[in-house]
């Protein structure tokens, strides 16, 4: 087990380094730079600016400098937002993104596995059919369609929740986060419900469940003590991809609901060639995804005794 | 007592042999045709494809004609603006049809790109095996852990926005799962008993690949391809929504939805039209994909 963790971490670190390197050189390969404005600035000013950010050095030198700073935990200054460090931008945005992401995942896992199990236990009934229809709707309607529609209906027509982002005076309040969380969770609820239904159906047909029933266990005990334990495994192995999906989904959610998270910065920064901000966001998210994948794998091993770590 | 003693029995057996055996695919087709949701979806999708190709050419308005005096007209029969007009006074029906065409095309072309890369990569890794396989799949794992959307956004930024790049960028990212599926199948099939049995029975190598390997790899690939088209369409819309997709005046469903989301207060029809079209398209594709999976791989039902 310990060896397995060590080996996985041993793979994860070079992976993150490769990702950082690819992202670094890809951004630099993009035509244009952070100081190319519509109105060209005098060449002298430009040179001073470039020198100021160390961008007059050869590319490999810049790369080494960047990696050196990164090793000390410094993501550098933003090239576009004046007097802002990337560390600050991320520290400001992270609580918002993390709150939305975390609650979406929790909602998706609980509701998704509940709906999937219910559908499986009532296979081919109206209840099963409606859960599967709901799942199909959830998969077919992307968050960027669902978001505006929910905002239109619940915010504008029904007036149940305020629209237009967070109120800076109060910060994150539940009424302003509920729609983003639901929108982000819906596709994952749908996918998890389908996964859970399929695996539950398979499990309740297996021999050991028949044995459990035959020896007279209550339906409750059969489901909760026996069936659920193995039915939940496919769900656990989906947690890694699910967290990746939630993170990319948050790019859109933060834009649709005007939330000040990290994802909001990414696209604008990429278009404006704000190299350091782009790099900062990529590093944070890539690391997060790799760590979450690792945790999901470990959890899978803990829950599934068939897996052996050699 | 000898077998086949009477001429009558012989004839019976000969007759039975001449009855055409049902292949894997005949069975699958029959199962697919029994799936009402899938068949309905195929009909609707057919109509949508017709509308996006022929309908677009026949419709009374062009997608890029700007009627300056008709900004944000609500749906009306007058002048055939049955789904209204957008912020620049362009007919929504014409724009939705063009957007649908672009989205479907992106879906198909990008899927083909990913199919080509994925099948080649996966089959090579699975067939060669050993260290090469390990290295090739490790590479796939690394790409997997990079959030796809960051990768594509950076590609779009590096190479500028154009429609061919969208095909390639999305296809180049979505091939990973395909490679894994094909590799897994190839590995599993190499050592299957029925392949061994065929070899033992003296079936030629070529015949084994043709009759046993290909049909078994093809099933999951076909299923995955149909389920991937909606994913690709979503990916393109996602990019368009962020302002990185196709460029005006050309449009896609994602771009229309993005514009509609901005104008939904004064003109909700600019959101509802494209959103409903998108949902119907994705519904159909998903139902067809599900139907195909149940038909080709009945053990998952």
Your description of this structure?
The complex is a heterodimer of chains A (310) and B (301). Chain A is mainly alpha-helical. Chain A contains twelve helices and no strands. Chain A is globular and about 85 Å long. Chain B is 74% helix and 0% strand. Chain B has eleven helices and no strands. In chain B, helix 4 crosses helix 10, helix 5 crosses helix 7 and helix 7 packs antiparallel against helix 9. The longest helix of chain B is centred in the middle third of the chain and has 37 residues. Chain B is elongated. Chains A and B meet through helix 1, helix 5, helix 6, helix 10 and helix 11 of A and helix 5, helix 6, helix 9, helix 10 and helix 11 of B.
TL;DR of this structure?
The complex is a heterodimer of chains A (310) and B (301). Chain A is mainly α and 310 residues long.
Question: What key attributes describe this structure?
Answer:
heterodimer; A: mainly alpha; MetI-like fold; 75% helix; B: 301 residues; mainly alpha; disordered N terminus; MetI-like (chain A)
What is the CATH C level class of the domain at 87-263 in chain A, in words?
Mainly Alpha
- Low-confidence parts of chain A, pLDDT < 50 over ≥5 residues? none
- The count of strands of chain A amounts to 0
Structural class of chain B: mainly alpha
Quaternary organization: heterodimer
Classified in CATH, the superfamily of the domain at 87-263 in chain A is: MetI-like
| Tally of separate helices of chain A | 12
Span of the ends, CA to CA of chain B: 46 Å
> Which series of helices and strands of chain A comes N to C?
HHHHHHHHHHHH
What is the strand tally of chain B?
A: 0
Largest sheet of chain B: none
Largest sheet of chain A: none
Q: Note the gap between the termini of chain A.
A: 7 Å
Order of helices and strands of chain B: HHHHHHHHHHH
Q: Which bin fits the share of residues in helices of chain A?
A: over 70%
Q: Output the CATH topology of the domain at 87-263 in chain A.
A: MetI-like fold
Separate helix tally of chain B: 11
The CATH architecture of the domain at 87-263 in chain A can be named as Orthogonal Bundle
């Amino acid at each position: 087990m310990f060896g397995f963790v060590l080996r996985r971490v041993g793979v994860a670190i070079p992976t993150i380094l490769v990702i950082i390197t690819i992202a670094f050189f890809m951004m630099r390969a993009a035509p244009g730079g952070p100081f190319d404005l519509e109105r060209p600035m005098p060449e002298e000013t430009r040179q001073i600016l470039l020198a100021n950010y160390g961008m007059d050095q050869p590319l490999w030198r810049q790369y080494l400098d960047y990696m050196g700073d990164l090793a000390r935990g410094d993501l550098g200054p933003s090239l576009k937002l004046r007097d802002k460090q990337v560390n600050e931008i991320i520290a400001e945005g992270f609580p918002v993104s993390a709150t939305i992401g975390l609650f979406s995942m929790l909602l998706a896992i609980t509701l998704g596995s509940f709906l999937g199990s219910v559908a499986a236990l009532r296979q081919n009934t109206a209840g099963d059919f409606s859960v599967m229809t709901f799942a199909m709707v959830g998969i077919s309607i992307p968050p960027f369609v669902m978001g505006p529609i929910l905002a239109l209906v619940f915010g504008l027509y029904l007036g149940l929740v305020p629209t237009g982002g967070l109120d800076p005076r109060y910060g994150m309040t539940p009424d302003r986060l509920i729609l983003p969380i639901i929108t982000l969770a819906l596709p994952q609820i749908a996918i998890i419900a389908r996964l859970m239904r399929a695996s539950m159906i398979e499990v309740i047909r297996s021999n050991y469940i028949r044995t459990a029933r035959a020896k007279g266990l209550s339906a409750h005990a059969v489901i909760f003590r026996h069936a659920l334990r193995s039915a939940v495994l496919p769900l656990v192995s989906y947690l890694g991809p699910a967290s990746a999906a939630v993170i990319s989904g948050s790019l859109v959610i933060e834009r649709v609901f005007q939330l000040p998270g990290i994802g909001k910065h990414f696209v604008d920064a990429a278009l404006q060639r704000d190299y350091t901000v782009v790099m900062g966001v990529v590093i944070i998210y890539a690391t997060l995804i790799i760590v979450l994948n690792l945790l999901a794998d470990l959890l899978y091993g803990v829950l599934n005794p068939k897996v052996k770590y050699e | 007592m000898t077998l086949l003693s009477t001429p009558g029995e012989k004839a019976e057996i000969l007759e039975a042999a001449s009855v055409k055996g049902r292949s894997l695919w005949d069975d699958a087709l029959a199962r697919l045709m029994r799936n009402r949701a899938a068949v309905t979806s195929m009909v609707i999708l057919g109509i949508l494809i017709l509308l996006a190709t022929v309908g677009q050419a026949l419709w009374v308005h062009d997608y890029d004609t700007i009627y300056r005096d008709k900004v944000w007209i609500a749906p009306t029969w007058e002048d055939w603006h049955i789904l209204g007009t957008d912020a620049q006074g362009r007919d929504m029906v014409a724009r939705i049809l063009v957007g649908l065409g672009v989205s479907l095309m992106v879906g198909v072309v990008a899927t083909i790109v990913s199919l080509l890369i994925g099948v080649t990569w996966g089959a090579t890794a699975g067939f060669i095996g050993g260290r090469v396989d390990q290295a090739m799949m490790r590479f796939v794992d690394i790409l997997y852990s990079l959030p796809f959307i960051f990768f594509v956004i950076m590609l779009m930024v590096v190479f500028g926005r154009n429609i061919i790049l969208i095909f390639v960028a999305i296809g180049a990212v979505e091939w990973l799962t395909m490679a894994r599926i094909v590799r897994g199948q190839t590995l599993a099939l190499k050592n299957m008993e029925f392949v061994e049995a065929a070899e033992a029975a003296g079936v030629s190598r070529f015949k084994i690949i043709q009759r046993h390997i290909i049909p078994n790899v093809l099933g999951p690939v076909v299923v995955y391809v149909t389920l991937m088209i909606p994913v690709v369409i979503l990916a393109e819309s996602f990019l368009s929504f962020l302002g990185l997709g196709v460029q005006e005046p050309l449009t896609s469903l994602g771009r229309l939805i993005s514009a509609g989301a901005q104008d939904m207060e004064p003109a909700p029809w600019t959101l509802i039209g494209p959103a409903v079209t998108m949902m119907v398209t994705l519904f159909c594709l998903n139902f067809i994909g599900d139907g195909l999976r149940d038909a080709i791989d009945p053990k998952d039902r």
